[in-house]
């Protein structure tokens, strides 16, 4: 009898929903000799890294209270939204990194587990890559380290697939929220107007 159940690797690969999106992305290959230093630097990065996604995650957790505040005290809710925008601006200034893409440049298949896209460059399977991506219209900046799991450089498409091996929880949650938002918009666009 043949076991047709999916392997644990197949199950692992599909833990999160995937969606096509136009993103800004910068991939930087990491030499094998520098991998441990890159991992250590990523894990020990300043608390500022991912601060904006952390703040947005907290805001998302309190959406029910925000909706209630908007209904009962719209003026106060408007003021709170202004404060949130100011805090976002401060978080971006504190982060201070300008090495993230500022415009959408690639069509990619993204999830909270990884990404696949067509991109120029040499990315050997198993190698580690520093990923800096910007999701729109946010903009939402996400930094991760990813392992190359597929490289179809010989095919006409030149598709590369990465599995995020190191991703901060706040950034993973930001990716999940982004994919969910895009799926919701796609479903709403398909529904006929009544």
Automatic annotation (TrEMBL):
InterPro entries: PilZ_domain. It comes from the Bacteria. One of its GO terms (molecular function) is cyclic-di-GMP binding. It comes from Imhoffiella purpurea. This is PilZ domain-containing protein. Residues 101-180 form the PilZ domain.
